[in-house]
Amino acid sequence: MAPRVLISDSLSPTAVQIFKDRGVEVDYQPNLGKDKEKLAEIIGNYDGLAIRSATKVTAKLLEKATRLKVVGRAGIGVDNVEIPAATAKGIIVMNTPFGNSITTAEHAIALMFALAREIPAADASTQAGKWEKNKFMGVEITAKTLGVIGCGNIGGIVADRAVGLKMRVIAFDPFLSPERAIEIGVEKVELEELLRRADFITLHTPLTEKTRNILSAEAIAKCKKGVRIINCARGGLVDEVALRAALDSGHVAGAAFDVFVEEPATTNPLFGHPNVVCTPHLGASTTEAQENVALQVAEQMADYLVKGAVSNALNMPSITAEEAPRLTPFVKLAEMIGSFAGQLTDTDITGIRLEYEGDVATMNTRALTAAALTGVLKPQLETVNMVSAPAVAKERGLGVEEVRREEQGTFDSVFRLTVKTAKQERSVAGTVFADGKPRIVEIKGIQMDAEFQPSMLYVTNKDKPGFIGRLGTLLGDAGINIATFALGRQAAGEDAIALVAIDGAVDADLLDKVQALPNVVQAKRLRF
Ligand SMILES: NC(=O)C1=CN([C@@H]2O[C@H](COP(=O)(O)OP(=O)(O)OC[C@H]3O[C@@H](n4cnc5c(N)ncnc54)[C@H](O)[C@@H]3O)[C@@H](O)[C@H]2O)C=CC1
Ligand SMILES: O=C(O)C(=O)COP(=O)(O)O
After folding, report:
1. Whose alpha carbon is nearest atom 10 of ligand 2?
2. 487 backbone dihedrals φ, ψ, rounded to 5°
3. Is there a single domain that holds both residue 235 and residue 256?
4. Rounded to whole angstroms, how far apart are CA atoms 147 and 145?
5. Are 299 and 288 in contact (CB under 8 A)?
6. What is d(CA 273, CA 351) in angstroms, rounded to the nearest whole number?
7. Does the annotation mark 234 as catalytic?
8. How many Å lie between the centroid of ligand 2 and the Cα of residue 314?
9. Which of 82, 58, 47, 84 is CA-nearest to residue 390?
């Protein structure tokens, strides 16, 4: 069945076309994001959800999203998506981190000029037939100091444009390296210094608990008198009530806002002030940017839903479309080996060691580790998948250790997983043969050669004559057909393992009988 995607915000028709071209069914309902109830009613029918900023992807909505595998944000900010809730449900959240950054930076520059020359008010007055030539006295921006709060992609482009406009640019960003600051021609400063020195302040951080109200009443009070503030990033970075008071007192000379605490903003503390310029979250609204983000989000989502490739995900390691075909059988192997070990473990797991040997050590082991953890955790936690497994493992305090060795042994690649419990360590290793099928090649250091089958019986025993015959007879008497029978042992007469693929299931009663056979140490049913 073709995957189905819902687009619940306004997106360029390019997205619809790309989904169709790539074999994804698509429903384009550009206003649905604003209708929470309706969206919750139908979200259960879709594998993918493509959004902009109007759709709020809350934990409550995700509860109804029983089929959802991916949320694609055609844009940058993902503060409208509850990512931990998506991760917990195994839903990938991806964005398009660069598609609209130039456009948004240009909007910030446009708003800076609009403020400096009071263009919106002058336009309204002129078109009202007032010709108030003496009312509007602007300020030059040349040689003025621009303070950039958050100097990442967009902040960096704004800084670059501002340098071109002959401004002096200072930036506050704890993650801006001194080398990058030199490269883009900005002076890196602390927030206090920026507030003290800047004639214009522009904000370009995401909205997080750290950045909320970064321009608080207190911070605004520390600003130079006559400062002008531009916010093209997110509502909530500036305390709107405090800013209004500072505008009213004349401490702040002007403010240009594209984003607001409450959106859509139909009322706002800033509205109505003569030195305030507002736009309705238009930062990303150019034909070019919308074309970029629509194309990119549709390609990324289709690549994931159709080919298993992951890019620009915020809660999952990337898998390129090129590596996906080579990686996929190993993802399967890692998950099955993980599942094998998980099903064998009854007590609390304290740690997991993942060893990648040979070719597999050169692959995307982050993705393979996520798959292996999924397998280990699934017997206890049905809903876990590659997206949520690493977070769940961390939450449960499982120490995860990765070892990579590129030298090959008997096989081109070996993946070995060791589960540690308070009582013991148990390792299982496997490989992928040329047929693309995962195989078990070693259990607890004992060599084996077994394929995974949907229903299997795992028996450890003392290597004594008669065991195989007795097990075969017991299963035969119960009407169970043996599909394959793999054996391995440490040495003659010592610990041995039998891995039996069976048609049909072994019930608890029969399992007890297997367990009761002479020399049997442990008997377990496994399902794959
Ligand atoms: N108005 C609009 O339509 C648009 C708004 N945006 C907003 O712009 C924001 C920035 O986008 P990008 O530049 O692409 O993101 P980015 O991730 O490249 O840059 C953000 C920068 O903020 C810095 N930062 C993080 N915490 C900080 C803190 N506490 N103090 C100072 N700096 C801090 C980071 O180090 C990073 O360099 C987005 O998160 C989004 O909210 C993005 C596109 C369009
Ligand atoms: O990309 C972003 O972060 C934006 O804020 C753009 O929002 P929008 O897609 O125009 O609703």
Report:
1. 284
2. -130, 150
3. yes
4. 6
5. no
6. 60
7. yes
8. 16
9. 84
The whole-angstrom separation of Cα 490 and Cα 444 is: 9
Joined together, the tokens standing for residue 402 give 């990765």
Q: Are residues 299 and 274 in the same domain?
A: no
173 lines ligand 1 (CB under 6 A): yes
Q: Do 467 and 438 sit in the same domain of this protein?
A: no
Residues 237, 127, single domain; the answer is yes
Q: What number does the ligand 2 atom closest to the CA of 234 have?
A: 5
Q: Which of 8, 34, 52, 80 to mutate to test the pocket of ligand 2 (most atoms within 8 A of CB)?
A: 52
- Please tell me whether the interface predicted TM-score (ipTM) of this complex is above 0.90: yes
Per-residue pLDDT at 474 exceeds 90: yes
Q: What is the pLDDT of residues 129-143, one digit of tens each?
A: 999 999 999 999 999
Residue 303 has φ and ψ, to the nearest 5°, of -60, -40
pLDDT for res 505 = 84
Q: Whose CA is nearest to atom 5 of ligand 2?
A: 77
Cβ 100 under 6 angstroms from ligand 1: yes
Measure 233 CA to ligand 2 centroid, in angstroms. 9
Catalytic residue among 228, 234, 244, 416: 234
d(CA 340, CA 497): 14
- Which ligand lies nearest to the CA atom of residue 205 in the structure? 1
Ligand 1 lined by 258 (C-beta under 6 Å): yes
Closest CA to 488 of 471, 468, 466, 517: 468
* Phi–psi pair at 207, nearest 5 degrees: -90, 115
72 close to ligand 2 (CB < 6 Angstrom): no
For residue 474, give its domain range.
454-528
Q: Say if ligand 1 is within 6 A of residue 157 CB.
A: no
Q: Helix H segments across 69-197?
A: 83-88, 101-116, 119-127, 153-164, 178-184, 191-197
* Beta-bridge partner residues of 455: 527
Q: Is there a domain that residue 283 lies in? A: no
Nearest alpha carbon, ligand 1 atom 14: 153
Q: Decide if 503 is inside a domain.
A: yes
In a domain, 203, yes or no: yes
Contacts of 25 (CB under 8 A, 6+ apart): 2, 3, 4, 5, 19
Nearest to 140 by CA among 164, 168, 116: 116
* Residues 495, 414 share a domain: no
| SS3 assignment, position 255 | strand
Q: Contact 80/263 with Cβ under 8 angstroms?
A: no
Whether residue 108 contacts residue 162, with contact meaning beta carbons closer than 8 Å, is answered with: no
Q: Report the percentage of the chain scoring pLDDT > 90.
A: 84
For β-strands 145-149 and 168-172, DSSP reports them as parallel
Is residue 26 within 8 Å of 65, Cβ to Cβ?
A: no
113: which 2 tokens?
């000029």
Query: Does 494 participate in catalysis according to the annotation?
Result: no
Query: Quick one: pLDDT at residue 17?
Result: 97
Judge contact between 148 and 187, C-beta under 8 A: no
* Angle (nearest 5°) at CA 153 between 246 and 150: 30
pTM for this model (two decimals): 0.81
Lowest mean pLDDT among 18-32, 107-121, 258-272, 482-496: 482-496
